[in-house]
């Protein structure tokens, strides 16, 4: 009987699925129409398509930028594989002064409330069943015991909670790709063998099934930055989202740990939905290597397939041949793999050829200087730009990362704010912000957190430039421009929870918008009075 569906309108047997969410059934088209007013609030704007067991999501209607596409609570949460001891109830780092061991199992928790948290039930029960308590005595550094917890919690679902387990069990584990890695053998010893021996579970589970769960966690878990350190969470529908370095969706979290997937661009009916699993401001080789090492695939999205990255030259190195103003790039980045070298880099002007090793040496050298840049040092960052603009395209990712840092830093150093910085630095800040917004719009138009933060900085910079330089007439135009930028920033950040810095900036953006309205009214009055 459980396979039979009933009409959401009349409860009679039904065989027609809603093509939007594919969840709700109707007996007739008329009943679907009659139910639409009620159902449209819950109807998903996407469907799950299945390409030989590789599901992906496709929009079932046009979706506006900023619209929430998925909002779902986690199936399961747990510590990252590599972590300092955290409270297994609330996921926060253990406070050495205040923690107490769980009265039943000994794992450190914050207090008796955390001890009773449902998150901790699996670890607690398996520890109690093995017959002796756990003792953790070192705190500030990575502790190997915690590697097993999230996987152990999945095993608990398998043994006791089939409804959740069935949802976890269908997620990708990429075992065949992982088997060839050294990490797989490390996981066998430090997670699979450890769990089976330490918790005395050899009679219930075997190594291969524990290793498959390790894969499910690695491939699908999202890092949730609600605590320090962040914890991991598995989600049901969002795990079907495919990656693109130029995504049309982005994500954030509610303060309760639900995952929100939003549209970052106008998405047309029939378009596939993509999320970026990595940082869109990393260079192509770094993004692709990171995806291979953490998600076990070599990305060949439309951005990675175009070595000019949509003519931004985000990876391009300046040609050093005399009198040449061209840029070096390889014909493709898709040949990058663990054992294969990239093809030669060729100048787009003089066609001179540079080996990938030679270019890599230059990039490694710059990368070293980039890593050694002192934190929050504006002068050192500007010096880096001055030196390396001679070697790299203006949009190169190293220069872009430094400009991004500077755009956040200038005007916030020490006790100063925008009115106190020099004209030169104010102009710099405006240029860098605009530069990065333009780049993000081309490279990763669906990204919204970074864009929201930069637009917020840009609106304040534009307003300050106006205040310093403009007469009242010009100032009205400039404040109106700053207001437009601020509205765009607040749109990009509007679903950010107040527990994130982005959510705090959103609150500030709303306050600033109100203040700008007042300034504009005052300015209009002033101009009006002056004209009388
Ligand atoms: C979270 S799952 C994504 C869900 C996947 N579509 C599925 O089959 O259910 C992540 C895995 O999907 C695969 N994947 C995601 N995006 C990909 C892409 N752009 N190219 C190749 N494989 C991708 C990779 O194997 C990755 O480890």
From TrEMBL:
Q: What is this protein called?
A: Protein msta
Enumerate the Pfam families for this protein. SET, zf-MYND
Q: Which residues form the signal peptide?
A: none
Give every SET domain span: 44-278
Q: Which Gene3D superfamilies does this UniProt record tie to the protein? A: 1.10.220.160, 6.10.140.2220, SET domain
**What domain of life is recorded for the organism?**
Eukaryota
InterPro entries with a match to the protein in the record: SET_dom, SET_dom_sf, SET_SmydA-8, Znf_MYND
Domain MYND-type, first and last residues per copy:
7-43
Q: Which CDD domains match?
A: SET_SMYD (cd20071)
Instruction: Show the taxonomic lineage.
Output: Eukaryota, Metazoa, Ecdysozoa, Arthropoda, Hexapoda
The molecular function terms in GO held by this entry are: N-methyltransferase activity; protein methyltransferase activity; S-adenosylmethionine-dependent methyltransferase activity; zinc ion binding
